[in-house]
């Protein structure tokens, strides 16, 4: 986000995440709002913390993220948790089984049964 780099609280990593989810200007960010911006980043596979949510809110109001009122923080967290609850459950694949390596030597090649293609 070109302009986001100039926004208060938005550092290079957050700015890159915002750009990657299509939020390139302050206007884009204001239109989406803090919760939607946070959720876009989360849905994109990044791992944002609640500090990013507060930082976006602070950036939109030109205040430090720690100055966001506790009541507003609670509202943001509640909205984000509701949105997160609506996301599909992550699909975790079981870990792969052990890898077995077979080393072919002259002895093991001689022991293999002959096939029609040999």
From TrEMBL:
Residues 5-79 form the TfoX C-terminal domain. InterPro entries: TfoX-like (IPR047525), TfoX_C (IPR007077). Residues 87-118 are annotated as: Disordered. Residues 109-118 have a biased composition (Basic and acidic residues). It comes from the Bacteria. Pfam families: TfoX_C. PANTHER family: PROTEIN SXY (PTHR36121). This is TfoX C-terminal domain-containing protein.
């Amino acid at each position: 986000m070109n302009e986001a780099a100039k926004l208060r609280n938005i550092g290079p990593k957050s700015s890159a995440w915002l750009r990657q989810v299509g939020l390139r200007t302050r206007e884009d960010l204001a239109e989406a709002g803090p919760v939607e911006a946070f959720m876009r980043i989360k849905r994109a596979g990044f791992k944002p913390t609640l500090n990013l949510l507060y930082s976006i809110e602070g950036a939109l109001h030109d205040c430090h993220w720690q100055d966001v009122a506790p009541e507003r923080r609670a509202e943001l967290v509640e909205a984000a948790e509701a949105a997160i609850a609506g996301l599909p459950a992550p699909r975790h694949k079981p870990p792969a089984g052990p890898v077995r390596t077979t080393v072919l030597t002259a002895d093991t090649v001689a022991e293999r049964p002959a096939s029609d293609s040999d």
